[in-house]
């Protein structure tokens, strides 16, 4: 624990995959007394009443009823990124606790990642690297072909801040852009990126050469893409997922990729993460997988930290909270 005169903030720790980065910890300690989960668990009675905020990193610490009951002074839960599927918002609100996230900090790098995956799948970049570096390669075959991106049709499912930035990038590739969203964007926003709204998801799936998932995971969107939806897609289509693994029925996806229902998939997310090492998705040549790194840039992670600090300080000082998550 740090300066006892500063507000107490619960953090997962400083080691392991959920540890706070060293340079981030130094910045956080300028404003807060950082209390690790280990410190808290070892002395709940003394430490619990000092904690006014929970700082989540890599989905830890888990905010459940037991934790909330142990933190009588808690004012805010601050979580990185745009996704909220790891939080029970109604439960947290029932304790009078606010929630803030950082959607703007992750929108550009995640959109970049979406386009990187789209391009990698279209032009078979991973396979090409393996071919170029294999000790068995004697020549480069002239019939080793990928898909054209320029002039193709991109269907974006989820036109929030990330989806819209994907559209901005796709426009530079002269792609025809379709989108499906819970709410239609303003006409001037559509015109700015040349996007056409599809009220029916089926229409988007049938027309798109590339389908990109950039939607939040909710009970309504879980398994949004299943066997039926995959069969609506073109046999030459590529599915790109930068949202959450549970948006897709992975068993149906494996079957579709193995049988030529769609051509390829490029996934930054899966369920679980990481996949079991014997999972069939890991063995398919027409799958490109990355380890959930949509926002994994030095710049984005620093901005996330700054945004979380700003929200926590606003909450503790009774000010409007930037990026406060409101129950709908």
TrEMBL record:
Q: Which PANTHER family match?
A: 2-HYDROXYACID DEHYDROGENASE-RELATED, GLYOXYLATE REDUCTASE 1
Q: Where is the D-isomer specific 2-hydroxyacid dehydrogenase catalytic domain?
A: 35-325
Q: Which UniProt keywords apply?
A: Oxidoreductase
Descriptive protein name = Glyoxylate reductase/hydroxypyruvate reductase
- Residue ranges annotated as transmembrane are none
Every copy of the D-isomer specific 2-hydroxyacid dehydrogenase NAD-binding domain together lies at: 115-294
A Pfam family this chain is assigned to: 2-Hacid_dh
């Amino acid at each position: 624990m740090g300066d006892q005169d500063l507000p107490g903030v619960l953090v997962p720790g400083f080691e392991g995959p959920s540890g706070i980065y060293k340079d981030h910890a130094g910045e956080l300690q300028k404003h807060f007394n950082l209390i690790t989960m280990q410190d808290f668990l070892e002395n709940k009675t003394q430490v619990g009443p000092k904690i006014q905020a929970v700082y989540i990193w890599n989905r830890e610490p888990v905010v459940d009823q037991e934790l909330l009951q142990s933190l009588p002074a808690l004012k805010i839960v601050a979580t990185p990124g745009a996704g909220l599927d790891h939080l029970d918002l109604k439960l947290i609100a029932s304790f009078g606790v606010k929630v803030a996230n950082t959607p703007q900090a992750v929108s550009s790098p995640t959109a970049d990642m979406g386009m990187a995956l789209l391009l990698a799948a279209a032009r078979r970049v991973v396979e090409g690297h393996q071919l170029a570096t294999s000790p068995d390669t004697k020549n480069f075959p002239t019939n080793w072909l990928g898909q054209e991106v320029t002039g193709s049709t991109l269907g974006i499912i989820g036109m929030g801040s990330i989806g819209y930035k994907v559209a901005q990038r796709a426009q530079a590739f002269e792609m025809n852009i379709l989108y499906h969203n819970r709410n239609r964007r303003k006409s001037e926003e559509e015109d700015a990126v040349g996007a056409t709204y599809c009220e029916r998801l089926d229409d988007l799936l049938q027309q798109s050469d590339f389908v990109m998932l950039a939607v939040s995971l909710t009970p309504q969107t879980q398994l949004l893409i299943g066997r039926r939806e995959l069969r609506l897609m073109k046999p030459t289509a590529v599915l790109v997922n930068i949202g959450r693994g549970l948006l897709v029925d992975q068993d149906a996806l494996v079957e579709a990729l193995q049988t030529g229902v769609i051509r390829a998939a490029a996934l930054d997310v899966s369920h679980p993460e990481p996949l079991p090492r014997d999972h069939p998705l890991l063995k398919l040549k027409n799958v490109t997988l990355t380890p959930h790194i949509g926002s994994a840039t030095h710049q984005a992670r620093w901005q996330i930290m700054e945004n979380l600090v700003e929200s926590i300080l606003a909450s503790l000082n009774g000010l409007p909270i930037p990026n406060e998550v409101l129950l709908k």
